[in-house]
Amino acid sequence: MEIVILAVIIAVVVIGALGGLVVGSRRKKQLPEPPPATPDITAPPAEPHVGDEAETPRDETRRTIEEVDLPDGGTATVEEPPVVEELEIPQIEVPEPTAGRLVRLRARLSRSQNALGKGLLTLLSREHLDEDTWEEIEDTLLTADVGVQPTQELVERLRERVKVLGTRTPEELRTLLREELITLVGPDMDREVKTEPATSKPGIVMVVGVNGTGKTTTTGKLARVLVADGRSVVLGAADTFRAAAADQLQTWGERVGAHTVRGPEGGDPASVAFDAVKEGKEMGSDVVLIDTAGRLHTKTGLMDELGKVKRVVEKHAPLDEVLLVLDATTGQNGLIQARVFAEVVNITGIVLTKLDGTAKGGIVVAVQRELGVPVKLIGLGEGADDLAPFEPAAFVDALIGE
């Protein structure tokens, strides 16, 4: 009996101990973690001020201006603003006076004398002038592009005068040939470029010609000739088909202070010519020079357009001068060009370019006979002042030499 009671007491004690352990473990799980002794407080980020970078300011050591090492011996380098280049204003040139210009260019013109002047003097100086010699004289004149009819006339006059002269010294032959060539060239023709209209200013000059004859350059050089004579000039860039033709003409004008009227590339040339004459009137200019397109004379449509330019210009005032520019080196082909242009517009004067070097001086005679109009200007080189008024006596002197 006592053993049973002892067993019961032991069982109760064990059960009670187990219950206490379960309750203790539950209490430990429910209790929160104790707070730290000193809480960590994070400060809010600082707001950036105006001009500061958007980051937290840092403590930095500050230095005065005396403590900062400056380049170039302690002087601060200040960047200078870039220099703006001023637009270059074209300088106005003073062209050479036209009086006696052909005489000054005589050396260049005389380069072509071998084909005509010296050849004729050599043949005429022979002791016996037989038929073979006269045929050689004819061939020399024809080779120099004098033309068949003028050649026959000149040879006949030379034959007669040589018979009358009898003896033939070099000086007598030179005088004889000079007189006959001057007569052949036509000393009595009016070679003045008409730039003074009978009614009111400006005088209107239209320049025509085929491609490659130097037409635009001649127009610019003619402006220099007129400015040298004290005239005010307006240029009309009516060659709207050739690229940069208007730029080229404007450059010539700027050199001598001439105003240039131009239109869009590929535009209506008649409109540009009309505006040029209109502005010339408004500005009170003395002369308007109109540079037309260097059209091929074989293209009928383009030639018709040249006639249109002429008609439109004449709505302002009649043309005072129509100058045909011919390349002196083209010979008889130049005469064909001259005929076609004369049918479209009333040619009043001729400008012969490239009359130096290998050119043949006889073309002066041939083209005048073909058109019945005088050669008024000749070009003798690439220089700006190498365009000269044509003077028959100076021209012949250059051909036959001293």
From TrEMBL:
Location of the region described as Disordered in the Swiss-Prot/TrEMBL record: 27-67
Chain sites annotated for binding GTP: 209-216, 291-295, 353-356
Biased composition range(s): Basic and acidic residues: 49-66
EC id: 3.6.5.4
Main location: membrane
Cross-referenced SMART domains: AAA, SRP54, SRP54_N
Source organism, top-level taxon: Bacteria
Family annotation (InterPro entries): AAA+_ATPase, P-loop_NTPase, Signal_recog_particl_SRP54_hlx, SR_rcpt_FtsY, SRP/SRP_N, SRP54_GTPase_dom, SRP54_N_sf
Membrane topology: Peripheral membrane protein
Pfam families, alphabetized: SRP54, SRP54_N
Keywords: Cell membrane, Cytoplasm, GTP-binding, Hydrolase, Membrane, Nucleotide-binding, Receptor
Top-level EC class: hydrolase
Subcellular location: Cell membrane; Cytoplasm
Family matches, as PROSITE patterns: SRP54
Reactions mediated catalytically: GTP + H2O = GDP + phosphate + H(+)
Domain SRP54-type proteins GTP-binding: 374-387
Annotated PANTHER family: SIGNAL RECOGNITION PARTICLE RECEPTOR SUBUNIT ALPHA
Subunit composition and interactions: Part of the signal recognition particle protein translocation system, which is composed of SRP and FtsY.
NCBIfam families found in the cross-reference section: ftsY
Role noted for this protein: Involved in targeting and insertion of nascent membrane proteins into the cytoplasmic membrane. Acts as a receptor for the complex formed by the signal recognition particle (SRP) and the ribosome-nascent chain (RNC).
Family statement drawn from the similarity comment of this UniProt entry: Belongs to the GTP-binding SRP family. FtsY subfamily.
Protein name: Signal recognition particle receptor FtsY
Organism: Streptomyces tendae
Lineage of producing organism: Bacteria, Bacillati, Actinomycetota, Actinomycetes, Kitasatosporales
